[in-house]
Amino acid sequence: MFDRRLFTNFDWTLLGLVLLITAFGVINIYSASSSYRDIGTPYYIKQLYWIFAGLLLSLTVCSLDYHMLEDFAYWLYGGVVILLLLVLVAGKTTMGATRWISFGFFNMQPSEPMKIVIIMTFARFFSRYPVFKGLTLKELVYPLLLLGVPAALIMKQPDLGTAILVSLIAGTMLLFVGVRWSALGSLFAAAVPVVVVAWQFLLHDYQKKRVYNFLNPDLDPLGSGYHIIQSKIAVGSGATLGKGFMQGTQSQLRFLPEQHTDFAFSVFAEEWGFIGCLLMLALYLFLILWGLGIAKRCNDRFGSLLAVGVTAMLFWHIVINMGMVIGLMPVVGVPLPFFSYGGTSMVTSMVGVGILLNISMRRFMF
Amino acid sequence: MKNLNNIIPDDDGGGRRIIGLSIGAFAMFFLLLSRLWYLQVISAEDLIDQSESNRLRFVPVAAPRGAILDRNGKVLVSNTPSFSVAVIPQDVKNKDQLIDNLARYLNLDRKEIETKWTKGQGRAKYYPLVVASGITRDQMEFLEENRLALSGVNIEMKPIRAYANGTLASHLLGYLGEVSEDELNSERYREYNAGDYIGKSGIERAWESYLHGTDGGRQIEVDARGRFLRTVAETGSSVGNTVMLTIDLDLQKAAEQALGDQAGAAVAMDVNTGEILAFVSSPDFDPALFTGRMPPDVWKKYLEDERHPLENKALKGMYPPGSTFKVITAIAGLEEGLIDEHTTVQCTGSYKFGNATFRCWDHKGHGTVDLKKSLRESCDVYYYKLAERLGVNRIAKYAKAFGLGAPLGIGLENEKGGVIPTEEWKLKRFGKKWYAGETLPVGIGQGYVLTTPVQLASMIGTIANEGTIYRPHLVKRVVDADGKVLQDYTPQVIGKTGLKPSTYRFVKEGLFAVVNEAHGTGGMSRLWEVKVAGKTGSSQVVKLRDSKGGIPYRFRDHALFVGFAPFEKPEIAVAVIVEHGEHGGSAAAPISGRILRAYFEGKGVIKKPVPKASVKEEAGGEGVAEPDTGAKEE
């Protein structure tokens, strides 16, 4: 039943890398939340629970042959799209956004599994689709429709961050499949009116405000510009060597908003300085290259596409979160994988890792 | 594995593209690294300065709410400065000692301060935490004198609500309260922060988005010890918009005085626009107490008062309309061709239906009764018989045509709709079929029928203007701080009854007789200078077999009156209900008379005080139907 080679081929490097990053994450959350005087289980303990749950899920995912995903891809896609529609009709509203469906004992946020499901859907779609000279504009219509429906539904919630992420993941996979220059050019030309329409009708005022404030944080130093300014001060004041563990004045005095979740990296940057950041960047880069390596080593097209998709998902989370924290990108609520506090992000990232491990250890099967 | 085509062909460029993606990833990470280098190495010194020696703090500045005015621009609600004590936890050296001191200086309960402290702990340590609001000038001076012993304590000035006329129109205006956690989680209060005050009821709640200004704030730089250095940036707060109501302050005052401390409601409405001119629910409460610290004993008193001072009776009180509903039954009869103005009925004081006896309020009987007399003297037997012939569904059809039984959309939250029963309604509501005997009390506004005072005012107003239902509304205009009109309300027609003109003529003649003719039950609402028409009503609260004297307050009948004036060219409609006031003619009609008098005095139509009405009160204990047996439920 269980092939021994599966175990001998297990990708310990990948698992080790992920565990190392989560370990840094927990230590950082411990520091970031030490100034909180909330009663109840401390955040770092809760994060350990999530890591444990995520690992279990990850190992479950990698124990089943990933080719099964090929059969389920479209069904899952349809299911999650229905859930997204359900959110619009009967969603639970928290903090002004309707992103959750309440099942009584737990709340589900369907936009989160969509990140993985869009990867599976695209992998399935293009695995049967030999592309030699790149996709033409006509060939792009169907995949863009597959992407457009969930992306628009997520945008409507409103969850700009996730909508952008899902689009970036799918876009990266398209680049991997190959798109003709002519098609790419036309797409960009077509994107302009789409962006204009989205800006006019889909974006909420507060989201537009965030973009304005990103372009010029001084416009609103008290509101969303405040996050960027404070985060930059925290990161920058860390200097080369950092202020030391639990010594970050900006974070310990709680000038930073959301410092254990979306802004966790600025706490780390303040306390560990440029050297620490260099180490984290190196770990994440290694993770990304390793993921792409798995895609390259994989012998079947579906697996290869899947690996690229999962890697793209991790990559864009990392780039957007870090970019936001250091003022390179607007503030959209995107967590840093394996590092920010939060169950949803941890579970999604771990499922992604499970898929990568799965592909990695079954590469000998051809 | 599904199919062998799935294997990557050598020439599809997969490997080459992986290299491309890797290069892309490298480039992105390099960009991140360069930015980190820029911040942490090149700009480090600057940013260390900002983080170590100077820190930026955000000090919120609350915006004053918009004012609420009456239709003539007289102030109903405005703002007044209030002082509160805030603590910045980060600057506090000895928490316990500080709490002790504050409790002593401010004469507060130590536990109360501690609770507030604990509640604020999720927030940043430099964020001001309000521990006491609405402190007196003496307390403030005392704190100022003892500043040295109170490091970390700030005195903040905040605008709070000032109710120019005390408890006047308290149910209509509403009150403020701290935004709750559930509210913070809703879309409606997206922009709010914990600790903000929002409208909790009435106009304050319904018009929150207009009244609430935009909070401002200052970003200040402080040194390592939390001392203020300079203001870095400042966003001014902007005052909320002014909401001008349709209410007339003088009329409102007169209506409240007329009702006195009796429990009940009074609604006056412009019959040609739907503008509400007075909106009274009695007893009232003091809205100012809700914004500051509500003394627990006052709160207890409000809750335990059997007259329910916190309930908005004009909007949410559902009462059997009693004999005021006879106008609907009469209209149904006329429209369906079952009666005309000459149709007569013999009233012997009761009517036998099956083995039940339904009594007229006048046990001696009214003799031969035609339509006008049936309204004037409020004969129950006339309406029992008419209701029997109409059936409940036909009565309901006309009641609903007048807007009864559903909220009218007055613009305040939780407006009640009342009940207009039908056979289908009963089956749905109780799962039981309708019995013919249940129709008879419906004909005189008893049984399952429930209406709100607002609906009754709208109903009589619609009769007055002969068929146009205007949406009753409370806001005339919204104006921003610069005087620019943001919203201007024009009358909104929400329905037309489409009845024969003769129907209105016959009914209105009856209503005129109620007030102005001998034996009319509504004589006490009569004015000499202006012709008034109306209808009295008493509605049964509980069925009492022996209603002779000594009935406890809560079991007494409700007294009602609906009316309009001037009779020839109606302008104003009034609905009055006095809870447990017993007789509409003696309890509700005079209140209506006083409201109408105030209205016409305000218009200059009535100039001098008029001698008291010499008409003898003819209102008796009319309109309460009570079958002899329990046959109603048969």
Q: Could you explain how this protein is built, in words?
A:
The complex is a heterodimer of chains A (366) and B (634). Chain A is mostly helical. Helix content of chain A is 69%, strand content 3%. In chain A, strands 1-2-3 form a 3-stranded antiparallel beta sheet, with helices on one face. In chain A, strand 1 (92-94) and strand 2 (97-102) form a beta hairpin. In chain A, helix 5 runs parallel beside helix 14 (343-361) and helix 6 (137-155) runs antiparallel to helix 7. The longest helix of chain A has 34 residues, at 264-297. The mean pLDDT of chain A is 84. By secondary structure, chain B is an alpha+beta fold. Chain B is 33% helix and 21% strand. In chain B, the strands form 7 sheets. In chain B, strands 2, 3, 4, 5, 10, 18 and 19 form a 7-stranded mixed beta sheet that branches. A 5-stranded antiparallel beta sheet of chain B has the order 12-11-23-22-21. In chain B, helix 10 (249-259) packs antiparallel against helix 22. The radius of gyration of chain B is 33 Å and the shape is elongated. Chain B starts with 13 loop residues before the first helix and ends in a 32-residue tail after the last helix. The chains are: A mainly alpha (366), B alpha+beta (634). At the A-B interface, helix 4, helix 7, helix 10, helix 12 and helix 13 of A face helix 1, helix 2, strand 1, strand 8 and strand 9 of B.
Topology (SSEs and partners):
The complex is a heterodimer of chains A (366) and B (634).
Chain A lengths: L3 H5 L3 H21 L10 H21 L3 H24 L1 E3 L2 E6 L4 E2 L2 H17 L9 H19 L4 H18 L3 H22 L2 H11 L8 H14 L11 H4 L11 H34 L3 H25 L17 H19 L5
Antiparallel strand pairs in A: 1-2, 2-3
Helix pairs in contact in A: 2-3, 2-12, 3-14, 4-5, 4-6, 5-6, 5-7, 5-13, 5-14, 6-7, 6-8, 7-13, 10-12, 12-13, 13-14
Chain B lengths: L13 H29 L1 H9 L2 E7 L6 E2 L5 E13 L7 H12 L3 H10 L9 E7 L1 H9 L7 E11 L6 H4 L2 E3 L2 H4 L12 E3 L2 H5 L1 H4 L4 E7 L5 E8 L6 E4 L3 H11 L4 E7 L5 E7 L5 H4 L4 H9 L8 H4 L9 H10 L9 E3 L2 E4 L2 E4 L7 E3 L1 H6 L3 H11 L1 H10 L21 H8 L8 H5 L9 H12 L3 E3 L4 E5 L5 E4 L4 E4 L4 H16 L16 E7 L18 E8 L6 E7 L5 H19 L32
Helix pairs in contact in B: 10-22, 14-16, 14-17
